[in-house]
Design brief:
This protein has 12 helices and 2 strands. It is an all-alpha fold and 273 residues long.
C-alpha cells in the first residue's frame, strides 16, 4: 500500500508539474510580453502566494494518491465497477460514460463548492484556495486538506456506482486536471466565440473562474455554466468583461466594465490613473 501510494503520488505530481508548470512557463514566462493583453488581471501575484499554491498542491497530490491507492486496492478485490474489457459494455457506452462522468462531476463540484462557501467552512477551509485572488496555474490543486478530501471523494463515488472503463477513467482524470489548470491560468486563451456562440457560452473559461476568485459569491462551476445559470449565480457581467479583454488588442485600454467591486485593468501609466 505504501509503495502504491508513493508511486501514485509521483504520477499525480508529474501530471500536475507537466500541465501547471508547462502552461505557467508558456503564459507567464515565454509569452509574457506578447500575451500581455491576454492577462486577465494586470498585477502579478506575490512570490509567497505562488509558493503557497505549490505547497498546498503537493499536499493535495498526496491525498489524491492515497485515494487512488485505496480505489485500486478495492478494485483488485472486485469491489468496484471498473472494468478493462472495452467490449464488455461497448464502445458507445464507453464514450457516453465519459460525458456522463463530467456531468455528474459538475453537479458534485458545484454543490460541494457552494457548501465550502458557507461562512464557517470558507473561513476555516476554502480560504486556502481563495488566497489566490489572482491565481496562476499552480493554484489548480491548491486546497486545504479537508477540501482535497472532498474533491477526491468523487472518485470512489463513480467507481462504486457506475460501470467505468479504466482507460476512460484515466482520461477523465486527465481532463479534470487540464480543466483546473486552464481555469486558473490567469490568461484568457479562448477566442471570443466562447461568449458569442450559444453552444460555447456554457464552457467555463479562465475569465469566468477569475471572476469567482475576485468576487467570491458567483461563478462556482468547473466545466460548464449550467448550474450557475440555473441557480442564478452566474455573473451577468462576464461576457462584457471577456469582450473587454479582447478590446485591449492591439493596444490596452483602461476600461472599467463591472464597476469598483471587481477586476480592473491596471493603468498603463501613472498619468492615466
Amino acid at each position: 500500500m505504501l509503495f502504491l501510494t508513493s508511486l501514485l503520488f509521483l504520477i499525480v505530481m508529474l501530471r500536475y508539474l507537466i500541465f501547471a508548470g508547462g502552461l505557467f512557463l508558456l503564459c507567464w514566462v515565454w509569452k509574457r510580453e506578447t500575451w500581455e493583453w491576454r492577462r486577465i488581471v494586470r498585477e502579478r501575484p506575490p512570490k509567497k502566494v505562488l509558493q503557497s499554491e505549490f505547497l498546498w498542491s503537493c499536499v493535495t497530490s498526496l491525498i489524491f494518491a492515497i485515494t487512488g491507492a485505496l480505489v485500486i486496492s478495492v478494485w483488485e478485490g472486485g469491489g468496484t465497477l471498473l472494468y478493462t474489457d472495452l467490449h464488455h459494455y461497448g464502445i458507445v457506452y464507453a464514450i457516453l460514460s465519459l460525458f456522463l462522468m463530467m456531468l455528474i462531476h459538475e453537479t458534485y463540484f458545484y454543490w460541494t463548492h457552494r457548501l465550502l462557501h458557507a461562512k464557517s467552512l470558507f473561513r476555516r477551509v476554502h480560504y486556502v484556495h481563495h488566497e489566490s485572488k489572482n491565481p496562476t496555474p499552480w493554484a489548480a490543486f491548491s486546497f486545504h486538506p479537508i477540501e482535497s478530501i472532498i474533491e477526491a471523494g468523487f472518485l470512489p463515488l463513480i467507481v462504486f456506482f457506475m460501470p467505468t472503463h479504466v482507460g476512460v477513467f484515466l482520461l477523465f482524470l486527465m481532463i479534470m486536471t487540464v480543466t483546473s489548470v486552464f481555469n486558473h491560468l490567469g490568461y484568457e486563451l479562448y477566442p471570443l466565440a466562447f461568449v458569442r456562440i450559444r453552444l460555447l457560452r456554457s464552457v467555463i473559461t479562465a475569465t469566468h473562474h477569475q471572476m469567482h476568485h475576485r468576487l467570491v459569491h458567483c461563478n462556482y462551476g468547473l466545466y460548464f455554466t449550467w448550474w450557475d445559470m440555473i441557480m442564478k449565480t452566474h455573473h451577468k457581467g462576464y461576457p462584457e468583461f471577456f469582450e473587454e479583454i479582447y478590446s485591449r488588442r492591439p493596444t490596452e485600454k483602461n476600461v472599467q466594465i463591472l464597476g469598483n467591486r471587481v477586476i480592473e485593468p491596471a493603468p498603463t501609466s501613472p498619468a492615466s490613473g
